[in-house]
Design brief:
mainly alpha, Recoverin, domain 1
Length: 191
Amino acid sequence: MADGEKKKKTKKKEEASEAPSSASKGGSAKKVKRSGSSVFSMFSQRQVQEFKEAFQLMDQNKDGIVDKNDLRATFDALGRLVQEKELDEMLGEAPGPLNFTMFLTIFGERVSGTDDEDVIVKAFAVYDQGDGKCPAEKLKHDLMQWGERFKAADVEQCFEQAPIDAKGNIDLKKFVQILTKGVEDEEEAAA
């Protein structure tokens, strides 16, 4: 108990001694820096780098801000037509211009309130052909070509228990359950 009280007092003294120095250096600038850096601390350096690469790909005109034209061009490049309303909704999530820090903040807010299964479901939703399925070969290919590229052996191991039908399509919802909960839990849920 005594050690805990000493640590608290020491910490309070350190905070008190830091407070005047931050005020003399322009406290508001320090606050802005702290709030910005906290979003960076939510992710590993590798993740931040990957987000930066994604942001740069989306920033078609390379002005440091993703705007409606940048988003439209990104979706066009992916072969997906997007409505004006959808673009407005996406950009409406940011309280100001969508620069890299804001981009990272939005992802941080989304990830912090979700569990792994939700994140994976949303990621696989991109592949959903409208029936909850997608071609297994397409998913395998993309896992080895994009993002954190998987090795063929890893993908094959991952797909050993995958719910693939006779047409070669994978049931995405069941696959996510297997990935997040395991085969045993998935079988219990089905029973």
